[in-house]
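Weekly puzzle thread! Below is a chain. First person to post its structure in token form gets bragging rights.
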Amino acid sequence: MLALVFPLALAAQDPAIGTPCEQVAAQESYSGPMDVCDPLLEGANAYSATMRASLTPRPAAKQVMVYQRDGEWFLHAEGYRWEGSLVETRRNDMPISPADAAAIGKEMNTASLAALAQVPYYGFPNVICTDGSTIELAAAIEGARYAARQHSCAAPQQLERTAALFRELAIKYDPAFEGYLSGL
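Winning reply:
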């Protein structure tokens, strides 16, 4: 029964209307990856791709975020990989070129996110998966949060292709992230 609540709640939101970041910041209290509305970003535009695994022990999230701070663009990446029973984590923040930030911003406009948010969470109506991960694309644009989510059991679509752009950008700026961002 609870498995139905999340997809129904997602369907009830109008993706074309962003949620004001002040509301998001007041609702969020987690220790996971950064949110595009994180108060530390001071209301600047930000774009992220996040993968959260459902039945994986901590850390269970991987993320690449592109954000602006003091007129400069940065990339925040955090990921992990398993080596047998040991987990290795990696996190880094680094400056990126305005051109690379603009390329991500072009993919993450409100119209694109609204279209992606219309795709059923599990890929098809009346399908529910019990294990896997959630991939979310999110953007903070002009003080509002826009997002699209999809479960990993859905057939690969534009959401996964856009998430892969974030992974490729992180590896471009920090090649040591190779293998830490699988799933994005």
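Puzzle host: Confirmed. Bonus trivia for everyone else. Residues 25 and 39 are 7 Å apart (CA to CA).
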